[in-house]
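Quick one: structure for this chain?
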Amino acid sequence: MLVRLGIAGGLWTLLNVYVGAHVLGPAPLDGWPRVLAWAAVVLIAWLPLVAMFAGRRGGRGRGGRSIRSLEWAAYTAMGLSSLLIVSFFVIDLLRLHDTARLVLTVLGAAAVFTLVGIVLARRPRVVRVTVPIADLPSDLAGFRILQLSDLHIGPTIRRPFVDAVVDRANALHPDLVAVTGDVADGLVPELREHVAPLGRLRAPHGTYFVTGNHEYYWDVRGWSRELERLGLQVLSNEHRVVERGSGRMVVAGVTDLSAESDPAAAVAGAPPSDVRVLLAHQPRSAYAAQAAGYDLQLSGHTHGGQYFPFNLLVRLFQPFVSGLHRLESMWLYVSRGTGYWGPPLRLGAPAEITLLELQPSPP
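Got it. Here's what it folds into:
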């Protein structure tokens, strides 16, 4: 773990030095002012790691407020740095000469976009999606599934944000709630208080959870137990049967692809049903889900790229990035996520609380 952090920190430092060379190159600084400016560049690069270790050591003690401020500064700086890295890379591709005016313009634009991204990241929108299902019985027509995904409760996402999300979710009066992984970034004792509002999620046909890759980075068993304690049903390659009137739906869930994820095993022994829904954190599970006979898969993981230009680049690595997709006989919906990871930014990939409504396919 420490070796990986060291490698990542070294690469991130080099990228920040790349930005520093562009910013400080035309700057009229000599002697100690230039040395201090370069020291600030290195400090900014290492702030996220400093904040992470500080949070692990004292996030719940008397210095909690100071550590929260440090974490906000560190992850905001990470977002600003990433925008500057991309901006100066484009400038180099275009072979533009660094002038003081150009550098100031880039710095100002990156700062503005960072502030706008912070505001947008804290305001997930409600996305309503209609999913047409062939031969859907009338008793299941209009069945509404509310999906939350990728909350990433941790350094900059705390209880007030989660409370607001749960209030908005409950106000939509869903029939069923699906939480599709990556709930938290931290250990249960550190974040129990901030995850607790999820216990207030209400739906007549239950609230279900499947693990994401970040649960495996921390404590997957601990988080599964904690969410079960809060009243969420954890689906680990297993299913539940939901009935409304004469309509029957099988709701299955698989562990993240980090573990032994098996969509076929999740419905082993399931009774005949009108609809099969799979909760799977990563969209890549869709190929196995389609082969196993599901009608709909709900996923997250991609964040839709989270912010520009990564919302474009993510398409190079993910077959499904966001929205509703048709995979032969199965539908796949990929949420952009309700929270965010790392930099508290959203640009071009808005956060969402998703309300999916099942309706019969038109004749």
